[in-house]
Design a protein that fits this description.
This protein has 12 helices and 25 strands. It is an alpha/beta fold. It has a 7-stranded antiparallel β-sheet. It has a 5-stranded mixed beta barrel with strand order 1-2-3-4-5. A 5-stranded parallel β-sheet has the order 7-14-8-9-10.
Amino acid sequence: MDTYDLIVIGAGPSGYAAAMRSLDFKKKTLLIEKGQIGGAGVCNGALSSKTWWELSRETASFRKNLKRFNIDVPSINYREIQDEVRRAVQERLSMLEDHLHLLKDSRYSDLLSFRRGTARLKSQHEIEITGIDGIQETVRGEYIVLATGSRPRYLPELPIDEKIVMTSEGIERMDDFPESMVIVGAGVIGCEYATIFSGFGRTKVHLIDKGARILPFEDDDIVNIIERNMENNGVLIHRNARLVRMDIKNGRVEYELQYDDGNNAIFNVEKALVSVGRTPNYEGLWDDHVDISITKRGIEDSDTQTNISNIYAVGDVTADISLVNVGELEGRYAIEKIFGNPKRKLVYENISTIMFLNPEVAGVGLNETQAREKGLDYKVVTLDYSCIPRAIAKRNTQGFIKLLVSCDDEMKILGVKIVGNHASSAIQAIAVLIWMGESIESLAECVHPHPSITEGIQECVRMLLGKSLLKPDALKGKLSCRTNTSGVYEDIRF
């Protein structure tokens, strides 16, 4: 029986990161994957959907510019767009696979092994692998990391066939842009797909929202921009609506909604996308006597360690945050905890996030909604993109920066949200300061590149310090600087 220092089950973002970090500790490592390397971080997930978003955004911008010059918009070829997405996915897959192959001829050749097949824990240390050829073998691992990821959540009452009623795993296999599509679920993924398909200008998108507004965890001012842009792009948002039924009739989708006012309405569209979250992949992963604790959200872990001392769980299979960057962080941290001594405990407060909407939304730390729910007093400053030279130069000033700090003289950073072009590139300095527990003063006098969106963050900081170039009193509606104390807002006067 082959024996390893570490066995990693799953070669998605978290599992791949764990295996590579294990090599740094010179540990004999086995990585097992039954499907595609990269998991949902590459295929039918993060990379593929974001490539769709980038192409949709470029298409929308192209259409807008053609209208500016009074030129007819050419037709968009779905197959060409689809092929470009597939090329992007294959590019990343090939790089990861080539990397694994090249490691066999490197100084890690005696440390890393890779198996394709399905793994099952037979005991605390023994794993049975069923290869793609059906041949079984049993291996032993001193430590085991479970990184089996997740899959789209199915609603049993919906006729999901991945052809007409689809999840994210079926939507990319369509033959053409549908003339109409309903999206069930107005969370991040549902809103991203609504943005993608409305952006191409070929699909009438319906979005079902059981609440009064989309993205219920976000601040009102952010949601207002996203909703307005969606509706300007032709998206029909069903607010305060409950899905009563969905049927496939004559190759199309018929769905019925009941609204909060008691009225019902029936709609007919070509396709449906069900986007109601993801389900962790742990079924059949271990024998009953192994007895790993689970919750409704996934494998239960404490600082990546399960209730079995030598077994760890990372990424989407756990009850923690389901993001590629978080999965990679957890994978690396678990290895450092097993074989090393992490300098600090794993924290999620400085996790940077991006929502690929119109415009993009990026953030780190708390937003105002979360700060209020925690009962925190805080100072908040906002600056409109129309005050930022880079946004003006790009001829797109839609968006704003919102910075939250503690309501005291120290003014430690609680969080930032940026809505608009380059949002994801502009938040990193804030993420580092949150991680370091620093106050805002170190940002005030940095020399930022000009013109850049980060200059807007600097101006927000200077407003809080009472030394901004632009004064909120003179540019009301574009700038604001306020305190929130026990739910009462008050302008800051210097």
